[in-house]
Amino acid sequence: MDKVFEALSSTPRRKILAYLSGSDLTAGEIAARFEMTKPSISRHLSVLENAGLIEGTKEGQFMRYSLVQENLVNTLNGFVQEVCPVSRPLKKESRQKGDKSQ
């Protein structure tokens, strides 16, 4: 979970995620939307990929990136469940019922 929040701590990385939420993009298409060097974009993409938020697939000489929506949703849901005052008692109750059934 730490890698995800580290990845989300950067404005350019959040913008990349927003762009990818609309459609899959090549690294070049992503870079064209920013005023930074391609190596900088590549580093941002690498952080997002290492956090499991995006995945790149090779298409000829290009890398096409897409969101890994399941990972982002599950990570954020897990975080919300930990800090939500309503969810904590429900999770505790669920664990206790699970212990009794064993």
Automatic annotation (TrEMBL):
Molecular functions per Gene Ontology: DNA binding; DNA-binding transcription factor activity
Keywords, alphabetical: DNA-binding, Transcription, Transcription regulation
Pfam families per record: HTH_5
SUPFAM superfamilies: Winged helix' DNA-binding domain
Highest taxon of the lineage: Bacteria
CDD domains, per database record: HTH_ARSR (cd00090)
Domain HTH arsR-type: 1-87
Cross-referenced SMART domains: HTH_ARSR
This protein's record includes keyword Transcription: yes
PROSITE patterns assigned to the protein according to its UniProt record, in alphabetical order: HTH_ARSR_2
Record keyword Transmembrane helix present: no
PANTHER family: TRANSCRIPTIONAL REGULATOR, ARSR FAMILY, TRANSCRIPTIONAL REPRESSOR SDPR
Protein name from the UniProt record: Metalloregulator ArsR/SmtB family transcription factor
Record organism: Parvularcula maris
